[in-house]
Amino acid sequence: MASAIDAQVTSEDEKTFQYQEELPPLPVPDLGETLRKYLDSVKPHVTEDELRQVDFLCEQFASGEGKILHEKLQAFAKTKKNWLERWWEDVAYMEGRLPNPLMNMAGPAPYIYDVWKPQAGTMIPRAALMLHFVVQFWQFVRKEKIRPHKDTKGKPFCMNQFLKLFSTCKIPGVQMDHLVHHFRTESEGPSPTHIVAMCKGHLFSLQCVDGAGDTLTAPELQSQLQKIYDKASSLPPAPGVGFYTSLERTQWAGIRSRLLAVHPENFHSLQSIESSMVVIGLDDGSPADMDNMAWEGLFGDPKNKWFDKSMNFVAYANGTFVSNCDHSPMDGMMLVFSTYYVHCKLLECKGQWQGHAGVRKLPEPKQLHIHLDPPLMDSLQEAKKQFADLRASVEVKVFIFTNYGKKYLKSQRIHPDTCVQLALQLAYYRMYKKPAPTYETATTRKFYHARTETVRSCTPEACKWCQTMASATASESERLRLFQAAVDKHNAWMEDASNLKGCDRHLFGLAMVAREEGRPLPQLYQHPAFFKSGGGGNYVLSTSCIGYTTVFGAVAPMCPHGYGVFYCINDDKVTFCVTSWTADKDTSSKTFTNAIHNALTDIRQLLDTPSMARL
After folding, report:
1. Structural domain of residue 340, as residue ranges?
2. Which UniProt keywords apply (predicted)?
3. DSSP strand pairing (574-581 vs 394-401)
4. The whole model's pTM is what?
5. Which of 392, 425, 460 is the last residue of a domain?
6. N or C: at which end does the chain have fewer Cβ atoms within 10 angstroms?
7. Are 213 and 199 contained in the same domain?
């Protein structure tokens, strides 16, 4: 029987990467437009006196230093199809020294809802079937069969990030990390065909493709995974070298150098891990609710994770799954797309293998050995202590709002994402009596090798609406009028951001020109308003809509007094995953989700008033 999801995801007529060279280069925005947008975004967070200062700095910047930097950026952009690509990867991801668990994306697998309820003793067969479909997706990318993504007007999106889903790893450096990409399409040449399985801290390499290049069947993968689990169970406890990958990056870089020096076998084992398609952990834990699963995804036991990998999956004893993925090589939508594919395949087969049940004689899984000397053992114990502190530092709360979703909002002619963003603004304003500088991700994939731009969702219009919602004397018609104004502003800024006409990436590029030329950082970037409005990694709400599928996830907050908010929107519900720091007593993921619930409820009440028809 033909697979509906295969027909949806793949194409026989178009190759995955065929439009890459036709994509337009990343544009350099107009400097005046960028500064006007920046000034507008600053307004909710500063005093009138500070706003006058920023206005003056913008005028100076536009006619002086900023003009010079802008012209240099324009000249540089003529030599590159994407002037931002290297700078963004280096500064946003490679130069940072924070531990990877604080930077990675994670989430529960959505299969728990409608395919596989938690059930003891199901880990191995379920992991095998899930892995079979993951490798099938790998085959589609390798054969360039994934249908090219396009915008609503049929214009192609950049597909470059799909090349980084598999066999990609971040390598720690003393001052700066770097990415290694081992994946190749069939037209480019051979690509690694093994995964690495981690079980009880032991590591094994497992071939997932046979000699003819076909994916091993689920029964074959089950047989191999069972061998790995049995072998790991028969061995003495492993040290758990995955903990190293949870360390601050410079620490981990020094340890990795020592690993390579103490024993020649360590090089081959690390190479196998770093080049593997994915890493899968077989874990004896049994997370049973969404809060626990999301937290396990972010901060679960590193003895069965390798935080540097582009894709980690962890299968648990009760048949539940989580993922943990490095954010450096790609954005969340690549992972959402591949996870959604696997989910749809599992739904099609009702969670049971439908093919041939026979198991061929296959090469045995190969155990990977990593040798440690006494200093490395000491470092490992320290890594375990540090990770215990790290995992206790974040509160995670999953909240599912079921009163309405995309279907209702579409009927009201309100963009669903815009509604959620305004609900976040209202929730925060009610809790803290002030606006929150907010980062929302917008995709810029219509351009060559482009990734994202920032939508500064805390607009002056959103703030005015929040104030009116908090006012006991405001009329419903006034609230509706200001709500519509806030909706229109957010929609316009999202559209602008998708064309790289926000302000963050352009300002970042100008700062990078100054840095590379040895110029001092302009005063515009040093004024308190820059940080108060979110610049320099100070967005109090770090948010992202991860689409309209079944997939959702989590990310740690960006700043010490902030929240991380990922959400997905379905026809009749919105699923949120909210994170906050336990050390900050003024933040609470649980309290914030309650505030989101109330905000969304009040928006529905507002939209259902007869006054709405008159707007």
Report:
1. 106-392
2. Acetylation, Acyltransferase, Fatty acid metabolism, Lipid metabolism, Peroxisome, Transferase, Transport
3. antiparallel
4. 0.96
5. 392
6. N
7. yes
Taking alpha carbons only, the member of 425, 451, 460, 409 closest to residue 574 is 409
Encoded tokens for 315: 């299968």
Q: Where are the beta strands (DSSP E) in 127-237?
A: 168-171, 178-181, 194-199, 202-207
Q: How many CB atoms sit inside 10 A of residue 530's CB?
A: 19
Burial class (CB in 10 A: 0-12, 13-18, 19+), 236: exposed
Do residues 255 and 268 share a domain? yes
Task: Go through 89-110 and write b for each residue having 16 or more CB atoms within 10 A of its CB, e for each that does not.
Answer: beebbbebeebbbbbbbbbbbb
From 392, 408, 425, give the residue that closes a domain.
392
pLDDT of residue 288: 83
Strand, coil or helix: 268: helix
User: How many domains does the chain contain in total?
Assistant: 2
Contact call for residues 299 and 390 (beta carbons, < 8 A): yes
- Other Cβ atoms less than 10 A from the Cβ of 375: the count is 11
**Residue 362: exposure state from Cβ atoms within 10 A (0-12, 13-18, ≥19):** middle
**What is the 8-class DSSP label of residue 25?**
P
Is residue 482 located within the same domain as residue 366? no
Please name the helix (run of DSSP H) or strand (run of DSSP E) that holds residue 43, with its range, or none.
Answer: none
pLDDT of residue 614: 42
The span from the CA of 566 to the CA of 555, in Å, is 7
Distance CA 438, CA 541 (A): 5
Which two tokens mark 324? Answer: 């943990």
- In a 10 Å sphere around its CB, with 0-12 CB exposed, 13-18 middle and 19+ buried, how is residue 48 labelled? exposed
What residue spans of 164-241 are helical by DSSP H? 218-234
What positions carry a catalytic annotation? 327
Question: How many beta carbons lie within 10 A of that of residue 296, not counting itself?
Answer: 24
